[in-house]
Q: What sequence folds into this?
């Protein structure tokens, strides 16, 4: 199955929005995607009503991404009933990602945990619009992402996938340009690195992250 719309390949996603100041900073500084976390073990977890209220502050872009960890159909249906989402970012298998796309018809992004070069995917199923490359979480972690944990960006040198992907994990306003340069990432995703406390975004850090990331992504 072919995704319904052509994805923007390059860009910046700010994930884990919970309140107005953070959301408004994403709009003001030109985020390409904003993420809402629907996973109750996250300090960034929001209800569909909260996500809808934030989304309603601005008509049009950026695209709204809903983040789910091993979601069942009932959870996805309940959230989509409460808030309009443009993309479903899921932690699941390739097979489950294909099922979700077939069932809901909303573009699906799939998170792929990586700790070694051999973990980098060589192909992407047609039902998956983009793959997020993230570090494997520590065994003690209570969630599979959003842990401010960095990947070895050198792992991606010479890896030239033919599908859209995005780098996430431990990015900050100060390291994002170097991460893009070393990994060759066409797009980046951040949560902890633009927060003043878990779940609370810093408008100033969002501004600096987007500015530094866009300079690196669109230079040359
Ligand atoms: O943000 C969370 O709380 C979260 C919970 C469960 C799964 C994924 C989560 N976040 C994702 O992880 C990346 C990297 O986070 P960080 O920048 O290292 O904090 C984040 O962008 C989300 O896509």
A:
């Amino acid at each position: 199955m072919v995704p319904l719309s052509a994805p923007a390949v390059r860009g910046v996603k700010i994930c884990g929005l919970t309140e107005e100041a953070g959301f408004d900073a994403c709009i003001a500084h030109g985020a390409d995607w904003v993420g809402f976390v629907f996973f109750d073990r996250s300090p960034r977890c929001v209800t569909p009503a909260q996500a809808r209220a934030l989304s309603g502050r601005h008509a049009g872009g950026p695209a709204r991404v809903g983040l789910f960890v091993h979601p069942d159909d009932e959870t996805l249906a309940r959230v989509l009933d409460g808030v309009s989402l443009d993309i479903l970012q899921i932690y699941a298998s390739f097979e489950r990602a294909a099922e979700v796309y077939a069932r809901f018809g909303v573009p699906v992004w799939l998170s792929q945990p990586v700790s070694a070069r051999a973990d980098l995917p060589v192909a992407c199923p047609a039902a998956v619009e983009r793959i997020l490359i993230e570090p494997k979480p520590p065994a003690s972690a209570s969630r599979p992402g959003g842990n401010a944990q960095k990947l070895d960006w050198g792992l991606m040198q010479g890896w030239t996938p033919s599908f859209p992907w995005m780098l996430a994990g431990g990015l900050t306003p100060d390291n994002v340009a170097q991460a893009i340069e070393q990994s060759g990432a066409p797009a980046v995703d951040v949560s902890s690195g633009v927060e003043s406390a878990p779940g609370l975004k810093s408008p100033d850090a969002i501004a600096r992250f987007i500015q530094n990331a866009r300079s690196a992504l669109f230079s040359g």
Summary: The longest helix spans residues 203-218.
